[in-house]
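Quarterly update from the structural biology core.
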Amino acid sequence: MLTINFSQIKNSKTPLTHFENEVVIRPEFLKRSQKLLYQVENVQVTGDAFYNVPYVTCALRVTADLIVPSSRSLAPVSYHEDFQFNENYSEDKVAKEELEKSATPIVPVEDDVIDLQTAIEDNLLLHIPTTILTSEEKEKDIYPEGKGWSVISEAEFDAGKKNQVNPAFAKLKQLLEQKDEQQNKGK
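Predicted structure, tokenized:
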């Protein structure tokens, strides 16, 4: 598990503490994320930690090779992540207003330990795109289908919506046509 000590960074004589590590993903993370992530390999983190009164700030870059489910078919898709994120860590209780206005997340520290492992694992999930497709799904624009149903593209849906008759307006049109017929008979 990847951790650093708040007091060690706070009391360091150097302005930056640099680290480069391979991250071993915990089994409980894989269990928690099993519907979002099939496999995680080659997780590398590089970063710097520094004391930025009253916080320890960590600026991290993570790379990883993932196998994730396609957002259409749930088929496995290889995906390489490469992202950066920052977090502030506080040993003091932080006011709710400060948490809400801060652009960088503020994470409480317990027992002088900054848990970078959880931050990295959570950000692995946060950086998976909402739409991820197999190469075949991209090339052939394939959508899932089953007995009596199929998924259609937004363009197909919009085209079908234009041609769809609103039942209330159809009934109103019928009533107006009947009224016109009655008026024409009366003339």
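Residues 1 and 131 are 30 Å apart (CA to CA).
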